[in-house]
UniProtKB/TrEMBL annotation:
Residues 9-264 form the ABC transporter domain. It is found in: Cell inner membrane. This is Putative D,D-dipeptide transport ATP-binding protein DdpD. InterPro entries: AAA+_ATPase, ABC_Ni/Peptide_Import, ABC_transporter-like_ATP-bd, ABC_transporter-like_CS, Oligopep_ABC_C, P-loop_NTPase. It comes from Variovorax paradoxus. SUPFAM superfamilies: P-loop containing nucleoside triphosphate hydrolases. Belongs to the ABC transporter superfamily. One of its GO terms (molecular function) is ATP binding.
Length: 337
């Protein structure tokens, strides 16, 4: 049986690589974290930092030539057993996806079939994992739509995806993720294309649903302001590695890694109107040609000869940090919620 203190998900040393003609692409390189029941973890970083690839690796959605080459992925669902996700057969992993672990994609049409009614898709999602009647599955589907704020859920079950707005389609995708009361939801920037009002509503609903149900949530995003108001903890990724992680208030209010500081300084929410945004100099290095040692050294003002060595991930001030030159940020430099 699982203990109350055991994390829902434990990830240790996850490595995902792509074998190409040009060489090995280390998309996810030695990533480790854990997430507790009912906890929300933000996974942030620039495009290409490995955020989405980390999420896909957890549920076996890496297509060839990519593969998870190392790491321990342990899921402790409510049912009591502990599952080693990397050792599961393809059939067993399929039984976990959509049931114990659900995923919400950035584009809801990656979840929804445009030629099938919503009820057909949701009932199928329930009956794929549970032996229940169509009537019971339909009631569960209507209840899930109601949870995410869709009015007249029984009537909307009869609609097709194109009859919903973008925000409503995303709510349907979230409802499908909630159908089987998963232990973990992985949300890959699901509100990026939505307007601010709809985004705020969905964020509030997701936060409330996780608190009420005990479902853990990994929220993948490049928007630090969203993560600041939603998450309990945050992991900052750069070039396939986590460079800083800890409680969201500590990391975003007092970042110690130069990359985290650069992300916060470039956030529009803390820059006065009319003033040019601060930028991190340079570009993210190619994952095919990473520099020796710290991948951020070419863009870091504090880099010196010691940065040619590989910085370990160490505990510091209640967080974990991968940097030889951790520096505090003035308390006035914070992310606005």
């Amino acid at each position: 049986m699982t203990s109350a203190s055991q994390p829902v998900l434990l990830v240790e040393g996850l490595k995902t690589q792509f074998a190409t003609r040009a060489g090995i692409v280390k998309a996810v390189d030695d990533v480790s974290f854990s997430i507790e029941r009912g906890q929300i973890m933000g996974l942030v970083g620039e495009s290409g930092s490995g955020k989405s690839m980390t999420g896909y690796s957890l549920i076996g959605l890496i297509d060839p030539p990519g593969q998870v080459v190392a790491g321990r992925l342990r899921l402790a669902p409510r049912t009591g057993e502990v599952l080693d996700l990397r050792r599961l057969s393809p059939r067993a992993l399929q039984g976990v996806r959509g049931n114990r672990i659900a995923m919400i994609f950035q584009d809801p049409m990656m979840t929804l079939n445009p030629v099938l009614r919503i009820d057909t898709q949701m009932i199928e999602a329930v009956r794929a994992h549970h032996r229940v009647s169509e009537r019971v599955a339909r009631e569960r589907a209507a209840a899930a739509l109601a949870k995410v704020g869709i009015p007249s859920p029984h009537e909307r079950l009869l609609a097709y995806p194109h009859q919903f707005s973008g925000g409503m389609r995303q709510r349907v995708a979230i409802a499908i993720a909630l159908l089987n009361e998963p232990d973990l939801i992985i949300a890959d920037e699901p509100t990026t294309a939505l307007d601010v009002t709809v985004q705020g509503q969905i964020l509030a609903q997701m936060q409330g649903l996780c608190r009420a149900s005990g479902t853990a949530l990994i929220w993948i995003s490049h928007d630090l302001s969203v993560v600041a108001g939603l998450a309990d903890t945050v992991s900052v990724m750069y070039a396939g590695r986590i460079v800083e992680q800890g409680p969201v208030a500590e990391v975003l209010d007092r970042p110690r890694h130069p990359y985290t500081r650069g992300l916060i300084a470039s956030a529009p929410s803390r820059n006065p109107r009319g003033r040019p945004l601060q930028q991190i100099p340079g570009m993210t290095p190619s994952l095919l040609a990473l520099p020796q040692g710290c991948a951020f050294q070419a863009r870091c003002a504090s880099a010196n000869a010691v940065c040619r060595n590989e910085p370990p991930l160490v505990a510091l001030d209640g967080r974990r940090l991968r940097c030889f030159h951790p520096t505090p940020l003035p308390s006035s430099c914070t992310i606005a919620n």
